[in-house]
């Protein structure tokens, strides 16, 4: 059993699906919405999801009518993958995404990400982890060298206390040790 620390910030995996990720202004608009809603972008990757990764990520849907269509769509082109952090991150990201079904989102939450950029139930623009356990599993697919427990041990306190800066070159937030109080550095180093 993995240890889920009771810290203020919660990590979540966020994906921009292929049909939306291929449109630069959509990616930029979603990035702006992420930052506007006080998320930190901890990790980011522009990548193509391979069949084995998609099969592993969506294994709980295996045998359902939409499984094959979902896996094919997720492997159809590049995606944008993010690890985001903020208080109540999983619930907040899922709220920004809106309802799973794009048509429902367009009628009930037209300014949600799926309301704005979703095309169908499968091509609904975004994905988000639904639990801390899912974050561990899904983050490992896109960021195999990112150690969540290590981030909580070494970086979470910096992020929680605002000792971070946004790096324009990589479009991620990084901890800023120079502005942090010395006692914070001692605890985290």
TrEMBL record:
Keywords: ATP-binding, Kinase, Magnesium, Metal-binding, Nucleotide-binding, Transferase
Its EC number(s): 2.7.4.6
Organism the protein comes from: Nezara viridula
InterPro entries referenced in this protein's UniProt entry, alphabetically: NDK-like_dom (IPR034907), NDK-like_dom_sf (IPR036850), NDPk6 (IPR037994), Nucleoside_diP_kinase (IPR001564), Nucleoside_diP_kinase_AS (IPR023005)
Keyword Protease: no
UniProt catalytic activity: a 2'-deoxyribonucleoside 5'-diphosphate + ATP = a 2'-deoxyribonucleoside 5'-triphosphate + ADP
SMART domains: NDK
Protein's name according to its UniProt entry: Nucleoside diphosphate kinase
Swiss-Prot/TrEMBL cofactor(s): Mg(2+)
Molecular function GO labels: ATP binding; metal ion binding; nucleoside diphosphate kinase activity
């Amino acid at each position: 059993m993995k240890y889920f620390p009771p810290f203020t910030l919660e990590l979540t995996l966020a994906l921009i699906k292929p049909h939306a990720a291929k449109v630069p202004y959509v990616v930029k608009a979603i990035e702006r919405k992420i930052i506007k809603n006080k998320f930190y972008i901890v990790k980011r990757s522009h990548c193509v999801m391979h069949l084995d990764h998609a099969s592993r990520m969506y294994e709980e849907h295996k045998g359902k009518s939409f499984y094959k269509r979902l896996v094919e769509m997720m492997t159809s082109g590049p995606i944008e993958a993010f690890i985001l952090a903020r208080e109540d991150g999983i619930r907040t990201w899922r709220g920004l995404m809106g309802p799973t079904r794009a048509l429902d989102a367009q009628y009930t939450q037209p300014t949600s990400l799926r309301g704005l950029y979703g095309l169908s139930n499968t091509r609904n623009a975004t994905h988000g982890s639904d639990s801390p356990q899912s974050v561990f599993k899904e983050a490992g697919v896109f960021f195999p060298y990112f150690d969540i427990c290590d981030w909580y041990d070494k970086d979470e306190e910096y992020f929680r206390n605002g000792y971070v800066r946004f790096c324009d070159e990589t479009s991620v937030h990084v901890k800023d040790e120079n502005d942090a109080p010395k006692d914070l550095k001692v605890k985290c180093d």
